[in-house]
Amino acid sequence: xxxxxxxxxxxxxxxxxxxxxxxxxxxxxxxxxxxxxxxxxxxxxxxxxxxxxxxxxxxxxxxxxxxxxxxxxxxxxxxxxxxxxxxxxxxxxxxxxxxxxxxxxxxxxxxxxxxxxxxxxxxxxxxxxxxxxxxxxxxxxxxxxxxxxxxxxxxxxxxxxxxxxxxxxxxxxxxxxxxxxxxxxxxxxxxxxxxxxxxxxxxxxxxxxxxxxxxxxxxxxxxxxxxxxxxxxxxxxxxxxxxxxxxxxxxxxxxxxxxxxxxxxxxxxxxxxxxxxxxxxxxxxxxxxxxxxxxxxxxxxxxxxxxxxxxxxxxxxxxxxxxxxxxxxxxxxxxxxxxxxxxxxxxxxxxxxxxxxxxxxxxxxxxxxxxxxxxxxxxxxxxxxxxxxxxxxxxxxxxxxxxxxxxxxxxxxxxxxxxxxxxxxxxxxxxxxxxxxxxxxxxxxxxxxxxxxxxxxxxxxxxxxxxxxxxxxxxxxxxxxxxxxxxxxxxxxxxxxxxxxxxxxxxxxxxxxxxxxxxxxxxxxxxxxxxxxxxxxxxxxxxxxxxxxxxxxxxxxxxxxxxxxxxxxxxxxxxxxxxxxxxxxxxxxxxxxxxxxxxxxxxxxxxxxxxxxxxxxxxxxxxxxxxxxxxxxxxxxxxxxxxxxxxxxxxxxxxxxxxxxxxxxxxxxxxxxxxxxxxxxxxxxxxxxxxxxxxxxxxxxxxxxxxxxxxxxxxxxxxxxxxxxxxxxxxxxxxxxxxxxxxxxxxxxxxxxxxxxxxxxxxxxxxxxxxxxxxxxxxxxxxxxxxxxxxxxxxxxxxxxxxxxxxxxxxxxxxxxxxxxxxxxxxxxxxxxxxxxxxxxxxxxxxxxxxxxxxxxxxxxxxxxxxxxxxxxxxxxxxxxxxxxxxxxxxxxxxxxxxxxxxxxxxxxxxxxxxxxxxxxxxxxxxxxxxxxxxxxxxxxxxxxxxxxxxxxxxxxxxxxxxxxxxxxxxxxxxxxxxxxxxxxxxxxxxxxxxxxxxxxxxxxxxxxxxxxxxxxxxxxxxxxxxxxxxxxxxxxxxxxxxxxxxxxxxxxxxxxxxxxxxxxxxxxxxxxxxxxxxxxxxxxxxxxxxxxxxxxxxxxxxxxxxxxxxxxxxxxxxxxxxxxxxxxxxxxxxxxxxxxxxxxxxxxxxxxxxxxxxxxxxxxxxxxxxxxxxxxxxxxxxxxxxxxxxxxxxxxxxxxxxxxxxxxxxxxxxxxxxx
Length: 1220
Prior knowledge:
Residues 693-931 form the PGAP2IP C-terminal nuclease-like domain. Residues 16-224 form the CWH43-like N-terminal domain. By secondary structure, this protein is α+β, with helices and mostly antiparallel strands. The chain has 5 domains: 17-224; 277-456, Growth Hormone, Chain: A, CATH 1.20.1250; 464-640, Growth Hormone, Chain: A, CATH 1.20.1250; 690-917, Endonuclease/exonuclease/phosphatase (Deoxyribonuclease I, Chain A), CATH 3.60.10; 938-1112 and 1186-1215, no CATH class. The strands form 7 sheets. The protein has a 7-stranded mixed beta sheet, with helices on one face. A 6-stranded mixed beta sheet has the order 7-8-9-10-12-11, covered by helices on one side. The chain starts with 9 loop residues before the first strand and ends in a 5-residue tail after the last strand.
C-alpha cells in the first residue's frame, strides 16, 4: 500500500488483516512450494518408505517432502523464515486484541503461540536426517502446544460470529483428522499395509491446511486494527533537528502518552510486572515438593527389602514410623527452633538423597529414614509457619501438590523408577548427583523468606473444628495420594484384565497425570465446591468404580478420584495448620502409617500377626481412606466470610505467585504428554530365530526387582533375558504396585526395551505377589486366574494364547502356594491340571510348584491328569521352578544361575512350533540347527588361577559339585588342596591396564566375592587376604571363551556344554562378562575334557592356552531405547525452548515499557534479569561403594554396582535331549 504523509506524523498505515493474509500466503507457499518441487524432481524417492515404494505408495508425506531432499528442503526453509515475521506479529496482535485486566489466559495463549513458533523453527531447521531425536522433540512439542493454542483462541475469540464459526469448523477438522491419521499410521508401521502410508500422508497434509487456515481466520478480527508508523522527528522528510528536545518537554510528552495508554489493552498488558524472583521461588518450592515425595515414596521400598529377605518380620520395619516426627513440634521451644532454622533442617533432610552412596543396605535404610523424618518435620513446620499468610500458604500447598505430579512424571519417564531414589545409581538409570545438586539450590531459594513467628490465623468465621479430625483428613489425603497417584500406572493396573485390550495401558497413564493437574487447578479456583458434601460423594463414587470395576469403567472412576483428592489438598491442609502441628500432622502421619500397614496386610496376611483379619480386603482400605478424608472435610471451615472489601478482592483474584505455579503445572503436563508419545508401544516385535520356528520360553522369580544388595535389578534382568534369547517368559513376584514396593512396574521397562508384548497379570487389587507374561509373539487372548487358596496366600495364574508363526500356542504362568499349606497346593494342582487338560492347543507351563520331581502333586501336574510332560524328567534337583509342555517338540533345556540379581535361577526351554513331541533321547550338537542351540556365551569356560607369588597357573579340569569348586590337574597335582596359595590377589594386565571380571571362591565354601574391572587403578596386591578367603584361598577367573569350544568332542554322547551345579539355596555362579574396554582373552588349543556327573555331561576347559585380544564392548551393548537420551532430550529441549520464548517476550515487553512509562524504569530494570550469578556446576561426588573393602563385604555381590556390565554367568544345566 502506498504510504500516507500527514505533515510529519504518519509515514505508513495499513489494516491489521494484512498481517494474517501475509502469514497465510507465505506459510502455504512454503509447504506447497516444497511439494511441487519434490513431485517434479524426486517423485519416486519421496513416496518411498521403509516398507514400500511406487506404485504401492504414490503420494509423499509432509516430512519426506520438506526434509529429505534438495532443493525442496531449501524452498521450505526459506519460506518458513519469511513466515516468522508475520507469525510473531500475528501472535502479538492477538494478545493485544484479547488482553483483559486481571486475566491470565491471554498471557498463557500468547506464550503458547510464541512457543509454537520457535518449535516450528526447530523441526524445520533440524530435519529428521540431521538429528531424528531432536526433530521429533520439536515436532511433538509443536503438536502438543497446538491444543492449548486452539482452545485458548476459541475461548478468547471476540464477539465475531463469522470468525467464531470458522474457528470451530477448522478446529474440529484438525482434531478430527488426528483419529484417521493415527489409525493409518498404525496400519503402516505395525501391520505394514501397502498403501496405508499414502492415505496417512493425505491426512497429514490436511492437518497442515487446517492448522494454517485456523490462524488465517484472525484476518476477520484484525480488520479493526490499523498499524501506523509515525515519524515524530520529521526524519522521513529530511528535516534536520537543530536543537535537542527540551528534557522537561520530552518527559511531559512521555507522561501524557503513558497516561493515555493505561486504559488501552497495550497499556494493561505491560502494567503488570513480571517478577523473576517470584518465578524462581515457585520453581524452587515445586522442586522441594518433588524431593519430599521422592524420599517418602522410597522409604517403604527400602524397608521392604528386609522382611523380603527374612521371609517375615525383620525388626527394620519400625523405620516406617520415622514419618511421625511432627509430634516433636508439640514442644514449643523445639518448634520455635525448627522454624527459625528451617533451612538447616531442610538441608539435613537431603541425607535421604545421598543414601545411594552407602553400599550397606542397613545403613542406607537409616539414611533414608533420617531424610524422610526431617523432611516431614520441616514441611509440617513451614506450612504451620505460613498459616497467617494465606497467599504464601496456598503457594506452599500448590508446590507440594505439583511436586507429587513432578514425581509421577519422573517415574513415568523412567519406567516407574524415580531417578533420585536410593536404589538407583548412574549405572542403572539414576540421576542422583543432578537431583541432589538441584535440591541444594532449591532449599537455598525456597527457605529465603519464611515467617518464623507462625503468626495468628485470621478469624474467618466459625470454630476451628476438631484437630484430631483434621489430622484424620491429612492421613486420608496422604495415603490416597501415595497409594494411588504416586505412579501413573497404578490405577491402570488396578483395572487391567488381560487381552484383548479393553482398558488403559501403561502409556495411558498420562491421563492420570492430566487428571491430577485438573484437580490442582479446580481446587485452587473452586474452593467452595471442593468442601461440599456433594463433591465428596462424587469422590466416593469414583473410589467405588475403581474398586469394583475393571477396564475403562473402573479407570474413569479412578480419574474422578484423582481429580477429587488433588483438589482437596488446599482445604484439608489449610484446615490442619489452624491447629497445633504436633496434633494434626503428627496424628495425620501416624494414621497414614497404620493405613500403609493395612494396605500391606491385605496381601501379606500369611506372614504377619493378625493378617487373616485383613485378608483380601482392599475394599476396607479404600472405604477407610474415604472416611478419613470425609472426617477432614467435616473439620474444615465451610465458609470464608470476608472482613473487608480489600480482603474480599484478594480472595476473588488468585495471588500472583499462583500464576507461576500454573505455568509450571502446564509445562509439566505438556512434558507428560510428550513422554506418553515417546513411550507408546509399536507392537512390531520379532522372535529371535523365526527361520527355525523356534520358541524359547523361560520362568524366573525376580524377587520384586531388588537384587541382593538392594539395588534396582530390572536392567540386569533385561540383560540376562536378552542374552539367553528368550521369546516368552513368565515372571513371578512381579507385582510392585504397593507403597512398600515403590509403586513400580518392572514389566513396562522390560517390554519396551526388549520389544515384547506384556500381560501384567492379576492387578494389585487382586491380592497376589504377582505373575506376568512377556512375549515376542502377539497375545491373542489371556485370562487371569486366582487358584483355590483356603488357608495361605492366593496363587495367581495367567492363561494366554499366543500367535506363534501362525499357530495358536497356549502358555500358562503360575505361582503355587507355600510349602506350609499342603491342602492349598493340592487344590491348586487339581485346578491347573484340569485347565491344561482341557486346552486343545499345544501348551507350555511356566511355573513355581514347590514340589520334588516324581513326588506328591508332581504326578498331578505331569501325566494323564494334565496331559503334560516334564521338560527333563532326569533333572532330580529341582524344587520350585518347573517347565512342562505338550504338543511341541522340545529341543533344549537350561538352568541359569541368578548370580546376585535375585534369589532364584532362570529356567529356559527351547521348542519347535509345528512338530511332534518326540522322545527323551539325546543327540550330538552338530545335528542341531544353530537357531535351536543356546548361546555359546553361557556354555564353556577358561579357568585361570592367580597365586600370591604373582604367578599364574592354568587348571585343566574344573567342575562345581555341592557348592564346592573342584580342581583336577594333571600338570601340577600338588596344587589341589595345598597351602601354596598365600592370598588371593588381583591379576593386573600390564598392556591393557584393565582387570578381568573375577570370581573368587574359597574351598571351605564360606566366601564368595567379586572384583570389578572398574578397580583397574589398584595394584595387584591391593586387597587384604581376608577379603577373598584368606591365605589358603584360590582366586579364580571364569572369563568365557567366545566360541572356541562350540563343538563337542566326537566321543561325547551329548551336546551338553555345562558346568554343573547341584541346585541349592545359594548357588555360586556368575554372569557373562561384557567389558567396557578390550581385555586380554585366552583361546583353548586342545579339545575340552569331559566329566560325567549323573546324566549330565560336564565339559571343562583344558590347560594349554594362548592369549589374544578380546572383542570390544560394542558387541555387548544394549540395543534397547536410549533411556537417558529420551528423557534428557524431552526435558532439556522443552526447558530450552521455554527459556528462549520467555526471554524474547520479556525483552520486547521491557523495551516497550521503557518507551511509554519512563517512571517505571526501576520496576523493569535490566539488573533484575542479568544481575544474578550463574550457579557453579556441582563437583562430582565420590562413590564409596567402589572401595575394595566395601565391595568385598556385600551380600554375594558380583556387580550390582555397575548394572550396565555383564558378568561371567555359568549354565547350571543345559540339555538338547530330543533328537527325533
